Amino acid sequence: MGRGRSKASSGRDPGGFVALPWAVLDSPAFLRLSHPAKALLLELARQCHGDDNGRLLLSRVHLAARGWKSADVIQRAKDELLEAEFIFQTVQGCRPNKASWYAVTWHKLGKIQGFDPGMERAFRQGAYRKNDPLCPSPGQVRPSIAPSPGQGRASPVPSPGPIRAKKGTSSVPSPGHPLDMPSPAAV
Question: How far apart are CA 174 and CA 123, in angstroms?
Fold first, then answer.
């Protein structure tokens, strides 16, 4: 803890915690996630201790112990997280008893033996930011204090004479309801 502070005086309950950067929570990709996908992401973040990123589990057996009941909800949320690149699959599981492994992409990949070939090279930290809109930094530019150039110059000359009505049209409304009248094209 440093500076003589104990865990009891840190201002939080004892035990581990989830390190989830605000950059993740505020990203447009996170804001677009469904609620089940956000909840599943928290389950993965809870497992990550830093050095084990890449060996996180999303198996039905593991998640059932944490209250997840629907295999369909788990699969849809997992697919959504993979698509948005918040998670990355490092090992493909197989039946009967080998679970797939995953990594969260806001943290570096752990130095773990057993990843599928090429997975360490394919992993991209921060991959969830791939679809963020590109917004340039405002930098050190100072706003202009000059008046706006406007929409261009207005003509100083008045219009050429009075406006004339088109021939064949009446300025007096016709009697009756407009829906009861035949259209001008039918006349």
Answer: 74
What pTM does this model have?
A: 0.64
For 110, left (φ over 0), alpha (ψ -120 to 50), or beta? Answer: beta
In a domain, 145, yes or no: no
Beta strands in the chain (DSSP E): 87-91, 101-104
Full residue range of the structural domain in which residue 95 is found: 19-131
Instruction: Quick: pLDDT tens for 79-124.
Output: 999 999 999 999 898 888 889 999 999 988 888 888 888 888 888 8
Taking the C-alpha atoms of residue 167 and residue 73, their distance in angstroms, rounded to an integer, is: 69
State how many domains the chain has: 1
The 3-state secondary structure of 156-183 reads: CCCCCCCCCCCCCCCCCCCCCCHHHCCC
CATH number at residue 43: 1.10.10
Cβ-contact 45, 104 below 8 angstroms: yes
* Cα–Cα distance for residue pair 161/148, rounded to 1 Å: 32
